[in-house]
Amino acid sequence: MIEIAWSNFTPWSALAGGILVGIAAASFLLLNGRIAGISGILGGLLSPA
User: Fold this and answer.
1) Under 8 Å CB-to-CB from 34, ≥6 apart: which residues?
2) Is the pLDDT confidence value at 49 over 70?
3) Mean pLDDT of the chain
4) What is the arithmetic mean of pLDDT over 25-32?
5) How far is the CA of 40 from the CAs of 11, 22, 27, 29, 33, in angstroms?
6) Which among 13, 15, 18, 36 could bridge 28 via Cys, Cβ 3.0 to 4.6 Å?
7) Which ranges does the record mark as transmembrane (predicted)?
8) Whole-angstrom Cα distance, residue 38 to residue 46?
9) Are the C-beta atoms of 34 and 44 separated by less than 8 Å?
């Protein structure tokens, strides 16, 4: 069985990094009107029907 070393479990840096990535993606969407990432790249290749 796997045991978690709770004394070494510090999710705060991961949480802060996730928040920063979310802020960056939301800012890119609001400022440029495009979605960052592979979905935005592939969506730009497809023509609207």
Assistant:
1) 28, 40, 44
2) no
3) 86
4) 90
5) 29, 15, 14, 10, 10
6) 36
7) 12-31
8) 13
9) yes
